[in-house]
Design a protein that fits this description.
Elements: E1 11-26, E2 37-54, E3 60-66, H1 79-90, E4 99-105, H2 115-130, H3 141-147, H4 151-156, E5 159-163, E6 168-171, E7 178-184, H5 191-200, H6 213-221, H7 224-229, E8 232-233, H8 236-242, H9 245-255, E9 260-263, E10 270-274, H10 277-290, E11 295-301, E12 307-308
Helix pairs in contact: 1-2, 5-8
The chain binds adenosine-5'-triphosphate (ATP).
Adenosine-5'-triphosphate binds near residues 72, 79, 80 and 112.
EC number: 2.7.1.148
GO molecular function, one term: 4-(cytidine 5'-diphospho)-2-C-methyl-D-erythritol kinase activity
Pathway: Isoprenoid biosynthesis; isopentenyl diphosphate biosynthesis via DXP pathway; isopentenyl diphosphate from 1-deoxy-D-xylulose 5-phosphate: step 3/6
Length: about 300
């Protein structure tokens, strides 16, 4: 007689998107060294996939595969494990719950696309579900903010305005779907190193320190051409100073017909806005052929934040 198939331990699957910054305005460093930000995030269709399985109480483990995973810590330095443990601690369940997680990474590491934050957001949502905590993406926001500045946005996704260190997020009114070509570099840029160079270069804080009204209007009307003209990133100069080839890459993308080009976050990923899907695909091909980047990817946005699949 065939052996009965026993159900395995409960498992959930979550995916969480990368972000790009349509605006990144950086204010002067505060006394604690952090720079206040005025940013507009957009979540795009490049996803981390996390599988979480119930484990013995006190067991918190993680395996990562895919893009850049060999460079990542698998101990508590990894944001996903830190998120799981923090959720358990805050819920008063640290000795009563456990989780075994597997992350399939597609977002390059240290690329300005907040891959680590996407993993943390995915871990929060997966563990909250697995442990029956009845906490959805909104209720997880305060804990997400304590884990890292980009984690709250990774939970809500869409298009949102971020302030503070980026952790205070408010969904932006907007319409339209945008087509992007992303160009990945063959190495990462450390976020603290880019901010240090920003300070060394003697930043002139933007006046007024806010998201350009033209960009918000473009989002409200779904006008891709206008959006493309108003993409802005105050970290572009220090990122280019640390990786000069990015300047040429941005120009090549514009010459290939991009209607906007910007470095995402602290770089080095460059995001090129296209007028339609076909043009975005053509852009990825042209950028690949330029030899100025490691690889390219066509994505769309906005997409939702971390979700169960
Ligand atoms: P930031 O959020 O600092 O702007 P980023 O978006 O450029 O960073 P990430 O891929 O999030 O880049 O990684 C930043 C750093 O976080 C890396 O040095 C990496 O070692 C560390 N890190 C910790 N956990 C993870 C994770 N799960 N995935 C990626 N990086 C992680």
């Amino acid at each position: 007689m065939a052996e009965p198939i026993l159900p395995g331990p409960p498992t959930v699957h979550v995916r969480a998107p990368a972000k790009i910054n349509l605006t990144l305005r950086v204010g002067p460093a505060r006394r604690d060294g952090f720079h206040p930000l005025a940013t507009v995030y957009q979540a795009v269709s490049l996803y981390e996939e996390l599988t979480a399985t119930l484990a013995e109480p006190g067991v918190f483990e993680l395996v990562t595969t895919g893009e850049g995973s060999e460079t990542l810590p698998t101990d508590d330095q990894n944001l996903a494990l830190r998120a799981a443990r923090k959720l358990a601690t805050d819920a008063g369940l640290i000795d009563q719950v456990g989780v075994s997680m597997m992350i399939k990474k597609s977002i390059p590491v240290a690329a300005g696309l907040a891959g680590g934050s996407a993993d943390a957001a995915a871990a929060l949502l997966a563990c909250a579900t697995l442990w029956d905590l009845e906490l959805g993406p909104q209720a997880l926001q305060p804990m997400a903010a304590r884990l890292g500045s980009d984690v709250p946005f990774a939970l809500i996704g869409g298009t949102a305005v971020g302030s503070g260190r980026g952790e205070s997020v408010v969904p932006a009114l907007g319409r339209g779907h945008y087509y992007w070509a992303l160009a990945f570099a063959d190495r990462g840029l450390s976020t603290p190193a880019v901010y240090n160079r920003y300070d060394e270069l003697g930043p002139t804080p933007p006046v007024p320190f806010e998201v350009p009204a033209e960009l918000m209007n473009a989002l409200r009307s779904g006008d891709a051409e206008q959006l493309g003209r108003h993409l802005i990133n105050d970290l572009e100069a220090p990122a280019i100073d640390l990786m000069p080839e990015l300047k040429e890459l941005l120009q090549v993308g514009r010459d290939l017909g991009a209607i906007g080009a910007v470095i995402s976050g602290s770089g080095p990923t460059c995001a090129f806005l296209a007028g339609d899907e076909r043009s975005a695909i053509d852009l990825t091909v042209g950028l690949s052929a330029s030899g100025l980047c490691r690889s390219t990817r066509y994505v769309g946005g906005p997409v939702p934040g971390a979700r169960l699949i």
